[in-house]
Amino acid sequence: MSTSPARVLIVDDEQLARERVRELLGEHADFQVSGECANGLEALQYIEKDPVDVIFLDIQMPVMDGFELLQELDSATRPRVVFITAWDRYALEAFRAHALDYLLKPFDADRFREMLDHVRSTLKDEAGQSLRSQLESLLEEIRRERSWIDRFVIRTGSRVILVSVDDVDWIEAEGNYVTLHCGEHNWMQRETISALEQRLDPARFCRIHRSAIVRLDRIRELQPASHGDFLVLMKSGKKLQMSRSYARRFKALG
Q1: What is the pTM of this model?
Q2: Sorting pLDDT into bands at 50, 70 and 90, what band is 128?
Q3: 199-223 burial by CB neighbour count: b if 16+ within 10 A, else e?
Q4: For the domain 6-146, what is the CATH code?
Q5: SS3 sequence, 108-135?
Q6: What does the H/E/C string look like for 145-199?
Q7: Taking the CB of the first residue and of the last residue of the chain, which one, N or C, has fewer CB atoms within 10 A?
Q8: Which residues contact 194 (CB under 8 A, 6 or more apart)?
């Protein structure tokens, strides 16, 4: 009984590199190219509309790089990944340490065939699950090393929007969601405020209440209120409450 070919997405900002992967995949009937993308954001939008089985993924790309893309995908349903990279000592050491599939540019047909044989053998068995765990371990290392976030990835309907932290005035908690207040625009993201606080640069953002985080350079004035609380006046004219416990932390910033 025949089986459907594995659906493949090629993600690389270099058109010639995408064409090379497509050409080599054309020799293997059990793999079918479903689409091509030039950066991680395009790929994220593509995958959320039309899931694939395998991604051939460049690391260094504009807008959203390969690692950022993988961190935005659900780990439980993330496709098998073959990394494509030019010489990058750190990346190669990481791939080898975690036994992940990769192609080093420029690659020939023999190396491509060897890698594809491995992908083929691990698509639907326990080895594939092991690779999923190894990839998650690598991504966790990258999260720790990259420190503070510099943008948010917002999903709204069929759109994926990048919001820079530079655009955020303050952040409001709403249960397991947060709302980013950015001038006249508000964006909602599924994440607790406590989890988000750990990802924000404390030199730029400060939690002032159990349900609010503010961008420090958006504050115009603090006014004492009752019971040790403060009223936070934002440059936008918005008024927020700073509770006594968080006021002590704020003062510690100097």
Answers
A1: 0.76
A2: low
A3: ebeeeebbbbbebbbbbeebbeeee
A4: 3.40.50.2300
A5: CHHHHHHHHHHHHHHCCCHHHHHHHHHH
A6: HHCCCCEEEEEECCEEEEEEHHHCCEEEEECCEEEEEECCEEEEEECCHHHHHCC
A7: N
A8: none
CATH of domain 151-252: 2.40.50.1020
46 CB neighbour count, 10 Å cutoff = 19
Over residues 170-186, the mean pLDDT reads 95
What is the Cα–Cα distance from 213 to 189, expressed in whole angstroms?
14
Structure tokens at 216: 């420090």
Of 21-25, 191-195, 236-240, give the lowest mean pLDDT range. Answer: 191-195
Give the separation between CA 42 and CA 15, rounded to whole angstroms: 14
Q: What is the DSSP letter of 107?
A: -
Residue 5 backbone dihedrals phi, psi, to 5 degrees: -65, 150
Partner residues linked to 9 by β-bridges: 35, 55
Q: Where in the chain is the domain with CATH 3.40.50.2300?
A: 6-146
* CATH 2.40.50.1020 residue ranges for the chain: 151-252
How high is the mean pLDDT of the chain?
A: 89
Burial class (CB in 10 A: 0-12, 13-18, 19+), 16: exposed
Q: Among 40-49, 98-107, 126-135, 219-228, whose mean pLDDT is lowest? A: 126-135
Give the amino acid at 233. L
